[in-house]
Amino acid sequence: MLGVIGGMGPLATADFFRKLIDATPAATDEEHIPVLIHSVPQVPSRPGAILRGGASPLPALLAARDRLLAAGATLLAMPCNTAHHWYAGLVDGCPVPFVHIVDAVAERLPAGARDIAVVATRATLQSRVFEARLADRGIRLAVPDDATYDRAVQPAIDAVKRGATREGGRLLEPAIAALLDEGAAVVVLACTELPIALDSIESTLRDRCVDSTDALARACVRAWMSR
Predict the structure, then answer these.
(1) How far apart are CA 133 and CA 161, in angstroms?
(2) Among candidate residues 199, 161, 18, 160, the one with its CA nearest the CA of residue 176
């Protein structure tokens, strides 16, 4: 059974589940992956912990992990990029494989691409979740400048979290276009709210982005089928 540590946020978790189903080569119900989703949105704020010294979410994440393991999970995933700041603590002593979202994204990058843009929460960027995992691949990572982040990226994330997905898409699309114009081969949507925003406006830029949610779903399917 695939165990999903979700709720960060709930809509992003639902989006992951749909993409997991879409990525599974199944012709009948019985051929789909058995999934148990732990969607508890009351996990302490990940940005609050990283940027402002707030309460660590690790105890809540460990509790979620252990509930899933006790329920029979044999593979784990977590559709939240920022929460992967605590990945090392989550895999410590974990008896089953735990798919890392950045490894999943790396598998979806265009062959030979070296100049990549990453759009994510400021906490994900500050904690260098992507840099640490991609350091040995020779990839140069660009990110939005502070003004663009404050004007477009964070407001887009906030809009999706309150259900205003089209507003989020309209805010985000120009920021993605600017990164592509500046030379990025591809833009990684490294917050699981961001693909929802672009999809809601049917953005023509979607094909030039790597969706971290979709990448994670596909990696989970591959991991499950290989077992």
Answers:
(1) 27
(2) 199
Residue 209's nearest CA partner among 71, 116, 107, 146 is 116
Rounded-to-integer distance, Cα 110 and Cα 186, Å: 8
pLDDT of residue 136: 79
Q: Which two three-digit tokens encode residue 22?
A: 């879409």
| Tokens 């990164």, residue located | 179
| Dihedrals phi, psi of 97, to nearest 5 degrees | -60, 145
Interacting residues of 73 by C-beta distance below 8 A, sequence separation 6+:
1, 2, 3, 36, 96
**Can you tell me which residue has the tokens 């979410």?**
57
The pLDDT assigned to 81 comes to 98
| 188 contacts 156 by C-beta, under 8 angstroms | no
User: What pLDDT, on the 0 to 100 scale, is given for residue 227?
Assistant: 78
